[in-house]
Amino acid sequence: MSSTDNWNDESDPEALLPTAEDWRRLAELRESFLAAEGGKSADSYWRSRRDFELYDATFAARIGWKWDAVLRELALRGRSPCGATVVDWGCGTGIAARRYVASVAGVKHVHLCDRSKQATWFAREALAALDSKLKLTLHAPPADEPIDILLASHVVGELAPQALDELLALAARARFVILVEAGSRPVSRALGALRERLKGEFDVLAPCTHSASCGLLAQGREQDWCHFFARPPAEAFTSPFWRRFSDELGIDLRALPYAFVALERRPTPAPPRGARILGRPRLLKGRALLECCDASGVAARTLFERDAKPLFKRLDRSGELLLADMRCEGERIVEFTPLVDG
Length: 342
Ligand SMILES: C[S@@+](CC[C@H](N)C(=O)[O-])C[C@H]1O[C@@H](n2cnc3c(N)ncnc32)[C@H](O)[C@@H]1O
Description:
The protein is an alpha/beta fold. The chain has two domains: 16-265, Rossmann fold (3-Layer(aba) Sandwich); 275-338. It has ten helices and 13 strands. It has helices spanning 20-36, 49-57, 59-76, 95-103, 117-130, 161-171, 185-198, 235-238, 240-249, 309-312, and strands spanning 85-89, 109-113, 135-137, 147-153, 174-182, 202-206, 228-229, 257-265, 275-284, 287-294, 297-304, 323-329, 332-338. Strands 1, 2, 3, 4, 5, 6, 7 and 8 form an eight-stranded mixed β-sheet that branches. It has a five-stranded mixed barrel with strand order 9-10-11-13-12. Strand 9 and strand 10 (287-294) form a beta hairpin. Helix 1 (20-36) crosses helix 2 (49-57). The radius of gyration is 20 Å and the shape is globular. The protein binds S-adenosylmethionine (SAM). S-adenosylmethionine binds at residues 33, 44, 60, 63, 90-92, 95-96, 114-116, 119, 153-155, 158-159, 163.
């Protein structure tokens, strides 16, 4: 079997059989993504179909795990989007649309948009392999057609202002918008700035518990950024493929930081409720330090084990206890009631 016969079999990345040259090319692609940050380069970095195969089995797979975490959070919070028409903008190999379609029912038509038409071809094949009944179009819907869900993944950081306006124009026509990005400071803060521009028309579904201004964009918090950690699946720690990936590219497989925002166009925003725990709780002896975000801003709080005994041990498991009602005395959380239970 040639390495391209089953490129879309996400369950078996080892079938890709990367050569030494492939690993070198993946490192080069990674450099290209970083070089493109801030819209510094308008050139496409994709060179061949093999680039898409390699990317899809590695970086895109990791991005898929972030989408799984985001879509899981939306479902847990009872805030999953719905609708038949999805636009995946800057789609690359189409991982965002694939994870969305696999997780949320009701999608009938996916628009795959990318400045690289070869990327859209690859994404189309991958989507068709996932669900042969999907209608697939390789451009955005005409201006008079509504968009139910706009997805953009790992692209915001590389957009020049004009391209960002293009994305915002699509958002202006969408009912739901989900943006998932790398969990780095510049990209997360760029995402926060986008949230500020959109929140007038949209209600923020997640990660925030409110649609007020982002507490981490407040003065004096310039060094901070909103991010979370997804839990990679077991094979990321057990398979020789992922061990090789980690060795070749120097990537720590345990850390999967991401930033995201999910929005819904709604005349009346949902009332704020509870606080979202940001990042990862810092567990110390008998207490945990939590960065808590609510409508009043972001604040560091301490939860003592004796105040929340049965819950305490679950704090270090990402995706659990991410949202809670809290009663505080100063910095100390004296009552901690989870609002979702992962
Ligand atoms: C890092 S890749 C991410 C691909 C995919 N969304 C994912 O999450 O795996 C960024 C993609 O955005 C595309 N892109 C960059 N600038 C764009 C623009 N101005 N318009 C459309 N696509 C763009 C690139 O061609 C590339 O496929």
